[in-house]
Amino acid sequence: MSPRILAFRPASVVERLDARSHACPLSTRELLAPAAELGLALPVVHAALGAVARGALVAAKELGAVLGIAMPPDATPERWFDAVTEAADEVAAGSPIFLCGEVVVAGEDAMRVERAFHEAWRLVGAGITHLGLDVAAVAPAERARVVSEIAAAGVENGICVDVVLPLSEGAHGARRAAELLDELGRRGAAADVVSVRCPAPATRDEARLQAAALARICQALRGVAVMRRGPVTPELLDVLRGSPVRLCDDGGAISARAVRAMPGFEEAEPGGEPQDGRGNAFERAAAELDDAGTERVEARAYVDALDFLERLGARGTAPAIARALERRLDAQ
Questions:
Q1: What is the pTM of this model?
Q2: How far apart are CA 151 and CA 188, in angstroms?
């Protein structure tokens, strides 16, 4: 991969990386236009620990695929960023990736909004390049105000801003999302992505119906990228491939299966509060993995990520998008 696209790394990322690092975390914002031109759905894999990220990155490198990596809730952002970018520098240097973090806004009152505001700034400062804001718990009439306040961390740093909404809002969801995007634009806090949380379809027919519902949302949002979040099935991935949906995550399944290969995972499940500055119990258990345990986790993540990326049509997307970014540099 050409090192020229490293020029697109956000300043917040460059400040945290070693000067010699060729890890290439980019704002998802930079990838969306090329992805749309190529008709691609960008894949996102949740990574509860660095070994999962490494396995997924090896799969992405083998396929020449752009990869998004999502940070789990309750992870220590700085520690997670360091582990993921170290793996990216070692096994996928120069390959475009994007790093996803999420803030769940518990309500529209001042205290909850302030807490979410500070959490968003911490994520961006830690190197996140795709900032998700889950505002499902916020009253629809208050969402534009709340999002515009919290999204400042992303807007001011060139980081992708993603508004996360539930599919359960039904027929009103697309209209409300369109109205929200219009209001955010007027407030100077335009969103780059709208995410929709979806359940796993039980049958192929349900997969088709869900993909059709997402396509209608894409149409209603007039070119703003739509991301599907939640558990996936092979049938769903088949129908999403080539659809107008621009991003799709794995619902955490790859990470969950890989973590089961970690000795003692039952006693140290993901989540929990950091203790003594050494991370939570899960992070500490992961740090104590021996070489054999790490290899088992990486291998499991690699196999499942390879299948996920192939089914979503991600093969060859990294060089294609890198060429598009290089053309932008040449045009400047």
A1: 0.91
A2: 10
